[in-house]
Design goal:
This protein is an alpha+beta fold. Helix content is about 55%, strand content about 20%. It has a three-stranded mixed sheet with strand order 1-2-3. A hairpin with a 2-residue loop joins strand 2 and strand 3. Helix 3 crosses helix 4. The longest helix has 27 residues. The protein is elongated.
Length: about 120
Amino acid sequence: MAVTGIGTYASYTNSYGNTQNAGNKTGRTYKNAHEYKNYLTQKYDCLRSRDYSVNINSSLLSKAMGDEKTKQWLEYNLSLIPESIEKLKAAQSARGCKVLSVTDTINGYDSITEEVLVTDEV
C-alpha cells in the first residue's frame, strides 16, 4: 500500500514562498510615507482640491504602508470626501449659509476631524 499526499518541508516552503511573491507583485510597495502620499495625491482628487484641504497624519500614512486593513480604510475614506463635502455645502446652502472653508484631518484609524467655516448669506 502506497502513502500519498506527503511532501518534504522544502516543497512546502517553496510553495509558500511562491504564493507570497505572487501576492507582492499585485500590490504596490512604497519606500517611505512621502512616496505613498504622492501616490495618494495622484489617485484622489480630494488631496488636490483648491476648494478644501485634506490632511493625513504621517503616522497613519506609515501604518497604512504596512497594514492592508488600514490602507483600505484610508483609501476608502479618501474616495468619500468629495461627495461628503458637496453634501455639506448643499446642507449649509439650504440653511442660507455659505461655506468659506473646509479642512478634513485624518488623524488615525477611525478618527477624522472636519473643521467648517460658514457665514450667513445676506
